[in-house]
Amino acid sequence: MDKINQIWETYRASWNNDDSVKRTDKLKEIMTEDFEYRDPNIELKGSEQLSDYMSQFQKEFVGASFVITDFQFHHDKSLSHWNMVNTENEVVGNGTDYAVYENGKLKQITGFFKQG
């Protein structure tokens, strides 16, 4: 379970990492080569596309970050509930991520949240 927690923390922190090269390298460490990501706004494949999406997020939501409020894992699947907070640590959004793992790496994430 410690490895899964480390993977998830790396993923969560990547949303705030503004160094695209380092962010992409970190994502490659925790994701399968055929990784897929989906949320209400987008579908993409691979760590580089996700890293680009994270850059767009940072430009749109300057200073926002994510706080995990609940994390559950079993049988290579996880469910994470989170809050998006602003620079004053006020909750400005929340959602849920469902993830699938393969050989100790993230294979797929599907995010659910209200579209703004």
TrEMBL record:
Superkingdom field: Bacteria
Stored Gene3D superfamilies: 3.10.450.50
Ranges of residues in domain SnoaL-like: 11-107
Protein name in the entry: Nuclear transport factor 2 family protein
Organism: Flavivirga algicola
Phylogenetic placement of the source organism: Bacteria, Pseudomonadati, Bacteroidota, Flavobacteriia, Flavobacteriales
